[in-house]
Amino acid sequence: MGVDVLTEVVIDRPVVVVAEYVTDPSHAPEWYANIESVRWRGELPVVVGAQMEFVARFLGRRLVYTYEVTELNAHHRLVMRTAQGPFPMETTYEWAPIVGAATRMTLRNRGEPSGLAGMAAPLVSAAVRRANAKDLATLKTLLESR
After folding, report:
1. Residue 125's pLDDT band (cuts 50, 70, 90)
2. What's the CATH number where 135 sits?
């Protein structure tokens, strides 16, 4: 059984503001509670093929993994994948304008945990869902206060 968690939030800021902030993964430690740091591999800006190393804490474990950008449609969609560690993951961000100058942002995490994490996929899904809801609430507060 895999993990497939979709979370969304409405942020009272234009799509361009939300997408440009989130598309720069160096901002991730500011709004993701579990992300400790991000280190670029290569040159900015974010383009398909760009790689960045994330250091995170999840379910009490320290994780180091490299994401690669596999799809980028400016101000609409960003997809990153990692094949490392016990939890290979694909993360997708999507942004859509809604009434006024607000943005509906979705965050989707999909993966096939292996080993012990694979047996605990329902628990991992629940933990990802809780973490994503908190992180998107933080992002909303951060961007709406600017």
Report:
1. confident
2. 3.30.530.20
Q: Which residue has the tokens 């945990």?
A: 113
> Exposure of 41 by Cβ count < 10 A (0-12 exposed, 13-18 middle, 19+ buried)?
exposed
Is 56 within 8 Å of 66 (Cβ atoms)?
no
Decide: 65 and 57 in contact? Cβ < 8 Å: no
Residue 120: other Cβ atoms inside 10 A: 16
Residue 48: the pLDDT is 94
- Give the domain range for residue 25: 3-144
By three-state DSSP, how is residue 15 classified? helix
State pLDDT tens for residues 51-72.
Answer: 999 998 876 778 888 999 999 9
Cα 105–chain centre separation = 11
| CA pair distance 97, 64, nearest whole angstrom | 34
